[in-house]
Amino acid sequence: MEPQAGMLAGLFERSMGLGPDWRVEDVWFEQPEGAQAELHVRVGRVPGRAVECPSCHARCGVYDTRERTWRHLDIWQYRTVVHCAVPRADCPSCGPRTVRMPWETRPNSHFTALFEAQVLVMKLSGMTTSAVAGAVRESDGRVWRLLSSAVAEARAAADYSGVTRVGVDETACKRGQSYVTTLVDLDARRVVAVTSGRDKASPARLCDELEAHGGDRRRIVEATRDMSLAYSFGIAAAMPNARQTVDRFHVMQLLAVATDRVRCRERGESAEKRALLRGTKYVWLRREGTLSDRQLGVRRDPAREHLMTARACAMTEAVRGAYECPTRDEAAAELDRALSWMMHSNVPEMKVAARSIRAEREGVLNYFSARATNAFLEGLNSVIQSVRRAARGFRNVEYLKAEIFLRLGRLDFPTSPQMVALGATH
Asked: Is residue 213's pLDDT more than 80?
């Protein structure tokens, strides 16, 4: 072996953790037609060394071999490929078994552990898959398969047996009515399951996925959600012991939308009302404590007190005041007064909102038992949408699911010495 090749062989033996059973036999360059030169490394078994059965770990002889290749980290900017005749152990107890290579993260992988670690580190740093594929000079499809396998392996090792408080929420995955529903562990603040759709059967599919990884739907004692009836019925059926809490944010969002509809309708009724309501949208939608002095003066202007929009805003503040109560009983009294006011008013938009809140009264009041909200889920949704925008969308929903678990699943990826060296844990 030439001196330069010998130096490379020593580098490979140390970086790939070959140990005493394997050695670098040859190093050479190839020049594919119309492409950059590639560096190729052949690894072989040290003659006379037994191999380890992957099942019982007994030292055995070799039954036969199969030629395989792996993509490795680029060396000196050369695309690097590892070759090896992979043996099968001639185990008397287990029969022929393919030996696990020291540089593999998982059996039958097409990449070395160092290469996978580099890809995971790049993804966890926020790069899109297309950018990662361009940087490592692989196709998007191969990188996606690598990431999907890494996520599947990490999820198989995850333990969800302690999940007792969850949040359920949906987020768009494509244009149009295309959604995925996420199940989040509110205590560990991690995504534990993702399913396509947002129908009544979605909670059941989420629970099936949870139980496939050690969880138990019967241990779930609290589930937060939005005001969707599909989720209400689905959670009641799929999580029989869970107390359902309607998320505070969605209740206030419902009232804010109703208030804005009142403003839009009223400003078209006359020129006088149009003048009074011009440029005041967020005066009515924001909490009073967040308004500037000028906005506060507009809201409290006696000339605007007769407006239905002002009345709708006051009703919204009355419901908000119920959330400030220290106990459930006090909150129930305040909420009932606010809803009664809305139902007996002459503001039709607020009547519709009041009916929706009355239908979810118990779920709204369950907030005061543990004050659980979907605020963390809404933050996760913003991360998911930023990932979706950066990737210019996902045609394959499974790829989006892999991204969600990579970013938000708090998974522990395999920690081989090579991967620890690059910091590929999350």
From this structure: yes
